[in-house]
Amino acid sequence: MTRVYWRLLMAGFRRQSAYRLAALGGLVANATFGLLKVAVLFATVRAAGGEVAGYDVGRISAYIWLSQGLLGSVNLSGRTDIAERIKDGHIAVDFLRPLDVQAAEVTAEVGRALFALIPRGIPMVVIGAVVGMALPASAVSYPLGAASLLLGIVISVAAAYLVGVAGFWLVETRGLQICYMVLSGFFAGLFVPIRLFPRWLGLVAQATPFPSMLMYPVDILSGRVGPGGALALLAAQLAWLVAVGGLGQALTRAGRRRLEVQGG
Amino acid sequence: MAEGFALWARLRPYRAVLASRARSQASYRANFALDLVSSLLAALVELAEVWVLFHAVTRLGGLEFHQILLVFGLADLAFSLADLAVGHCDNLPTYVRAGTLDVFYLRPQPLLLQLVTSDVTLRRLARAAVGLVALVAGLATSDISWGVGSVALLVVALTSGCATFGAMFVWAGACQFFLIDGAEMTNAFVYGGRYAATQPASVWSRPLKVVFGFFFPMAFTGFLPTLRLLDLPAPPWLPTWLGWCGPLAALWAWAMALLCWRWGVRHYRGGGG
Question: Rounded distance, CA B91 to CA B83, Å?
Fold first, then answer.
């Protein structure tokens, strides 16, 4: 059974490798936005006297290039294939397969996300290394960061899946998906780290799963939090994974009973 | 007078198409309401991103929050209006891939005009409202010596800003004839340009000033007119008299866009079928 999921993971990985021009386009976009973020956030750190909310220039640089590198892998858009398959009724075929619909969909998406780390993640980290970015003080932060990164990707995919399966009730999920995309980027700390938020807004952000997708892995990999803090963030990520995954499982089952495919 | 009537008559098919598009959107009420909400939310979050930075520091790139509101308001209002009018040029890759673009070639009307009038997305009005409110708030809280000059500067900045962003959408559409799968490449400059336009350009490095200050003239849509209007000191490479040069920037952007469009249309070979 695990072999099937391993194959799905690899299929997702290979599928993503077919779109080279799209990968190049994504690279150009991520690098351009990264340079604009550098301009405005470096100026912010300097205007604050060299440090703001625990970020100096090196840390903020690490934050920018790591988060830009993760953009191709972490699903913040809420777009999924499953939404389309629910809308056109192909989901009925998925339910006939001897696989768990949620697990299969998430596994394939995670495979694609992991591949994207190669063409879209590595170049951003290289830019960061050339420009100069802070590294974690402790070697333990790297394996912890890698685990957090993987958790972040899985949480993002599992949460986007929730938007997709909302289609069992809504049919057209585009409006929901756009709302999701807008809020997820902001609360995941895509343009401004959530530590810079006013206190109340930071608390609102932490009450959502979005910081677990991007902010926490970046905080660990940039060394903004030490190994002790990293363990706390990993625990929060695990909790969100259980919550998001469990809700997805429940919604899939409820949706299956509700499913009505038109035409034939 | 007679010529005016002739032009009015010639535009009749376009007017009819646009009116029907507008009506069709408003008829699905629930979906339209959700569209409006998400559009409003997107604009509010973009404003919040700027606000959060100014919450951490009081002054960024020589501007305070009420001054950046002017930059944001001018640029974002211009962008939303351009997006409303021609933003659907973004759909071009879908038409190219599906081969439905061939139909446009068969009709006796210019391709670009057909594409522009093929849709009008009213939900983008919600976005424009946020830009307008930011602009008005910025104008009310800043110290401006009102006169014919300042009003003229605002009008010139807004109209040329709309034109510049419109040109960016057309340029991006033109590139899709070549890229097809690489839409993200042009998004870097269209949506990256919008993001850049709402920033204080004084914080940019030299390469960024070349790319988003002049090549894609984003600084002309918000930052430079604001400098001029508030009589603020000019950063290197961006003298304040450039605040009046929005129309030149728009002309340059449209020249580039139409040239690329011409290349693109000739390059297109059809999707078969």
Answer: 12
